[in-house]
DNA sequence: AATTTAACTGAACATGCGTTCAGATCAAAG
DNA sequence: CTTTGATCTGAACGCATGTTCAGTTAAATT
């Protein structure tokens, strides 16, 4: 049997990425085989190669899509306002966005070493762009005198690490809502960088 | 040829763990083969099984050793003193200890999903013990009134995530010494949890 | 109704995997 | 000097890997 019904290209394509996303996040890139992905999609392994040139591209495409979506969504939030307002917006945005995409976040942080050097460089550049968004806010706050003078680069890394860490323990069915988590983290971030 | 000189058991044994540590940290557990480990040690793959029952035990032993060493070293630091003093000690200890063992830390965080369920539970319990050390300090500080009343469990996770994140960017040959990094992070931690 | 073509199957390719084990080697013990 | 036993080799086991491709199916086009 070949195709069982209809033209599936526009259906199967996304399903391949979806399956790869879920399986990579759960078991890790190296531990997932093309045959497992194919089984999840409901096709034979060979059929995957209608939608990706190879396994590496699957990982790269997932990461690139995630980083570009993140930057695009963040761009909508970037606005005027005081550094304090902008930092609160960034903090809440980061938490909300990352809680909604735990699989993508997991992959984006854990599978960097499974990218080829060229692919790694490209993803790393996008990540750097995102970090620079926060760093710019911190620098502005220092100039306004509302944030303590400090090493903004390290502050940036520290704040992002703290915020992203929320994905390791947060469960939607847990005792705290995403909104409450946002508030708690915003409290800590605000105090940590303030004078 | 078999053995080339002398009795190597007490030399080869540690070298197997060392090689596994370095390779797992660099490429990931699933991506490293027993033959690669053997090559690094300078023996054939079969010889590894004189030192480990299987590949999984290699990963588990590395993680367990790391967590137990961490807890043992931390126990030496645990003392009396104000909550603020204890928190500073914990912060500086955590950063120093983790900067000295980037490979172990990397594995301990990235390869949890490659542990069997039983092994995972054991490592997770050790990690929880360590987190509880910090949580106890934060709770004591709240009772003393020197730390802001807050959700101590979340504060714990946030602080540890922030501190451990230092391993992702710190380079010994970089512009900052470990001592300077300790001070910067301590500044942020202190402010973040204070009233 | 005939033709084209996108979508997929199923088998095959070479290579690598974790693990086992009989046999070789050589330091140490008697 | 002989025996013992720890240490390691080298080959083999069955199975899984990413990827390719000739052939099959059925929807879309003529």
TrEMBL record, chains A, B:
It comes from the Bacteria. The keyword Transcription applies. SUPFAM superfamilies: Homeodomain-like, Tetracyclin repressor-like, C-terminal domain. Residues 10-70 form the HTH tetR-type domain. InterPro entries: Homeodomain-like_sf (IPR009057), HTH-type_TetR-like_transc_reg (IPR050109), HTH_TetR (IPR001647), KstR2_TetR_C (IPR041490), Tet_transcr_reg_TetR-rel_C_sf (IPR036271). PROSITE patterns: HTH_TETR_2. Residues 33-52 bind DNA. Gene3D superfamilies: Tetracycline Repressor, domain 2. PANTHER family: HTH-TYPE TRANSCRIPTIONAL REGULATOR RUTR, HTH-TYPE TRANSCRIPTIONAL REPRESSOR KSTR2. This is TetR family transcriptional regulator. It comes from Thalassovita mangrovi.
